[in-house]
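Hi V.,

You were right to ask for the full record rather than a summary. Here it is.
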Amino acid sequence: MHRRSNTYLLSLISIVLALALSGCGKGDAITVEPGEGPETPVGPGEDDGDDADDVNWSKAVSYVFDASVIPEIHISVPQAEWDQLLKYYEADSNTQEYVRCEVRYVKGGSETVLPDSGLRLKGNTSRRWPGDAKSPQHVHFGLNFHKYFPDEDHTLKGLRKMDLKWFKDDAAYVREIYCYDLFRRFGVWTAIRDVYARLWIRIGDHSEKYYGVYGMMEHIDKNYLRIRRKEFGGKDGNLWKCAWGSSLRDVNASMGVDDNRHTYSYELKTNKERGFEAAKAQLRNFIQGVASKSGADFDKWIASVMDVDLLLRTYAVIVAVGMWDDYWGNTNNYYLYFTTTDPEKYKVYMIPYDYDNTLGTSHIVSDSGRQDPYNWGSSDIPLVYKILQNKTWRAQYRSYLRELCLGSGLSSPAVAKDRIRAWQSSISSFVSNDTGQDMKIEDRPASWGNHSEYRLLGGNASTNWFEVKAATVSSMQ
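Predicted structure:
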């Protein structure tokens, strides 16, 4: 059973007008007033009329990740399927196995019902027991509408997957939303979309439980590549998920195919069936170049295989938000996309990923607000460190950080605080939930971080995150 209301055919203006009349009760989407929330993402994925499938994906992300509206997601899971999910978790807490569910997506008076969807647990160190119908727990979920019936009827306006992430260790309910929005505002088109949603789950015949506000995130996969095919120059290259240990200095680091069972430093996500050996040779070619080349030889080579300016923009945002658990900080949490399958002829792009431990929640680095931006990570982690040895690129990196953090920049104190207040205002009435967890918005970093004094909206010149970061950037020579 699959149905779509005719209001799907309305323009964005019509949707917003309908929302204004509909109110904000259960079953109605929440409208974020113009100027309050993040900008609606603009950039990759514009329709070009050359490929009908690409046009569908563009419309899907524009609709689903429209940041001006907070949708509802209602998931119904048969008791036997939820019991199976618990068994998967007991056997392997890192399980990637799916169970069947039905998803109902409600937005602006319209709804899409997606039967026979797939639901799984997600997360790394955030994994935990997901609870049951009587004692639900906040956990990260992955939805795959295409899992059991790979046809157009089992998509959300063409979208096949999405990730649902609770605000673990982020009492401010804003860190990851802020970071991905900042990437995209600053022209880092490789960044995914991430917007708020409200989540309900029904298990078996039990009453539906409200899980509260979640982050609804674009999944990085073939469809992510399809949306950005014009920017990448194609969509059929090799995509790697890079986890802890992916330093780009060791050609013998663990590499493998995503098989739902093993964990690798570099995990191939595309071209898995017949292309692994060529993909591994290509990745090793890139690692060898990063690790062994230096000086002018490195500069010439890296400019031929990467968009260095885009990488500098990416890293200006990374340092501006204090992301320590990334490539340069902890050899972790990023993707690499190679635009071809040729082992020696390619362009490669770094894709930022997993930005909840930011904006004053820090570890690894001694103080993510005051850490030297030129030495954000170790010189033993070579890619960014070597790029910043080039005086021209170093100056551009400094310029981007100053553009972001000083004056009226996108991440300057006054501008950042206004944007955060608007986001928090849009969800404040919906945070209280049936899990009894994360029941209010608070201005503090994670309890396990090494600087508990940081604040996003409060504090002073020594304790407000944005004030401290601005002072650090201002002192860069």
